[in-house]
Amino acid sequence: MPNPLYDALFARHAAQDTPFLHLPDGRTITHGQFIDTASRYANAFTSKGLVPGDRVAVQVGKSPDALALYAACVQAGLVFLPLNPAYTPTEVEYFVSDAGARLLICDPACVNDFAVVAANSGAELETMDITGRGTMRDLAAGHGHAFTTAERTKDDLAALLYTSGTTGRSKGAMLSQKNLLSNAETLTKAWQFTKTDVLLHALPIFHTHGLFVATNIMLLSGGAMVFLPKLDADQLIRFMPRATALMGVPTFYTRLLAHDDFTACLTAHMRLFISGSAPLLADTHTQFEARTGHRILERYGMTETNMNTSNPYDGSRRAGTVGMPLPGIEIKVCDPETGKTLPHGDIGVVEVRGPNVFQGYWRMPEKTASELRADGFFITGDLGVMDDQGYLSIVGRGKDLIISGGYNIYPKEIELLLDDQPGVMESAVIGAPHADLGEAPVGVLVAERDATLDLEAIKTALAVSLARFKCPRDLVIIDELPRNAMGKVQKNLLREQYADVFTC
């Protein structure tokens, strides 16, 4: 039965003894072994009564088995919902409940907390640790690898990815089989990946970059991956001689440049270095090229669309730009008030249309209607400018988005928690430049009259409800927040004032 995404990415690799995952401990998992594992998990899902269209929430560490859960969901027609392991039980409960997930898979170390989450959300609970062990593997072990792939169409949902909302309520971006497959096909061709490539993979697989960009490309091209658990510059350097390409966020490149062992000789055999998920500083571009002779290829995408633009593989890779629209994808820069397309050189809101653009926000028809135009263009909220040669530069971000180490942080979610803390009258959260993370959140607080704020107690309270990467790296107290004539907080002034908070 047809299943476009499974057929293109996974089915072609069944029974193949070609290498797929090279692991740090020296083991290699072949394509065929990986597909067999995934099919056992697909059988395990169906044995629990899951049917096509059901949502499976996965909050586990990076491992080959965790990746196989994604393949199993595609094969069984289930909707894959990956969650950052840093999310707290409170955060996870919202995602699982909102998605109506039938199954939640978590780390065994957190099973007590998540048993409550599952019970409150009406989901079943299984476990998987960073080695792949847990009740989910035990269940799969009782099944064979023969599985009849679920019939799906290109418009059926394949994944549900939550992105933080400016009002504090996270939004589930609905990604279809067509969304994921079209982008993988376009990028594989644009970046010239083949079965001879070996990708150095140190990205998380709960994020679109590591999962739906990096992994899907390698599955489609038939290449292999050096599958590292996390970003570790020493491991990147150790395994780089085995690789031909690296995909990373700017933090990857700043940490590599900090190592004396990262040399032109080490990278001489490499074909491609790609950066995304956050802006790459022009200085990093310059230093990297001077050190290695390679020019980093920067691209632009987001949860709702995967990749939209890319600097060319062959041609000028321009620092400070995210390149040109990918084939089959339209980009325009528009007046934020009228929606009118602006001439080249004018700054406006970036809008995108193409087969990569998501179907809308889960159970949020009004939000979907406000950000997806009737003609198919998605209003990204990012501010950009297009030059006369078609190169796009992102010059700012609407919605006050902070990107720290490649992770999206929306201030409103943090501000709501800060405002609830004892003695806090109001707050504003901004991003400040950070040498390692690109930028990091700073909480600016105004105290109630005669109140004395306990900053350490506030940090402790935030850590209970927020993933670590969202927690402000610094808290400061001021007398009042700057506002314009309409009463809106002028965060631009705060960003200027605290631009050096992490460099002092």
Keywords:
Rossmann fold; 504 residues; GMP Synthetase, Chain A, domain 3; alpha/beta
Could you explain how this protein is built, in words?
The chain is α/β, with parallel strands linked by helices. The protein is built from 16 helices and 25 strands. Among the domains are: 4-152, Rossmann fold (3-Layer(aba) Sandwich), CATH 3.40.50.12780; 191-295, Rossmann fold; 402-497, 2-Layer Sandwich (GMP Synthetase, Chain A, domain 3), CATH 3.30.300.30. The protein is 31% helix and 25% strand. A 9-stranded mixed sheet has the order 2-1-10-9-11-12-13-14-15, sandwiched between helices. The protein has a 4-stranded parallel sheet with strand order 4-3-5-6, with helices on both faces. Strand 9, helix 8 (208-221) and strand 10 form a beta-alpha-beta unit. Helix 2 crosses helix 3 (64-76), helix 2 (31-47) crosses helix 6 and helix 4 (89-99) packs parallel to helix 5 (111-121). The chain is globular and about 65 Å long.
Topology (elements, then pairings):
Layout: H1 4-9, E1 19-22, E2 28-30, H2 31-47, E3 55-59, H3 64-76, E4 79-82, H4 89-99, E5 103-106, H5 111-121, E6 124-127, H6 135-141, E7 157-163, E8 171-176, H7 177-190, E9 198-201, H8 208-221, E10 224-227, H9 233-239, E11 245-248, H10 250-257, H11 264-267, E12 272-275, H12 282-292, E13 297-302, E14 306-310, E15 324-325, E16 330-334, E17 348-353, E18 360-361, H13 365-371, E19 378-386, E20 392-397, E21 402-404, E22 407-409, H14 411-419, E23 424-434, E24 438-447, H15 455-465, E25 474-477, H16 491-497
Parallel strand pairs: 1-10, 3-4, 3-5, 5-6, 9-10, 9-11, 11-12, 12-13, 24-25
Antiparallel strand pairs: 1-2, 7-8, 8-18, 13-14, 14-15, 16-17, 17-19, 19-20, 21-22, 23-24
Helix pairs in contact: 2-3, 2-6, 4-5, 7-8, 10-12
